[in-house]
Amino acid sequence: MKLDPTLLQIIACPVCHSRLEPDDAASELACTGCVLAYPVRDDIPVLLVDQARTR
């Protein structure tokens, strides 16, 4: 997964607005505040709540 470090500093969870941390093994962004993880497809974060999974 190749995400711009600047992007990782500014994006936030659409539900609780906490920081997102990359999980390269699962190809997703895990929220540090709630229990959601958002998929990353073709190096593009999909920050749609209906696409998120509970971790």
From TrEMBL:
Domain of life: Bacteria
Homology family: Belongs to the UPF0434 family.
Cellular component terms (Gene Ontology): cytosol
The protein, known as: UPF0434 protein E1269_01225
Signal peptide: none
SUPFAM superfamilies for the chain: Trm112p-like
InterPro entries, alphabetized: Trm112-like (IPR005651)
Transmembrane annotation, as ranges: none
Pfam families tied to this protein: Trm112p (PF03966)
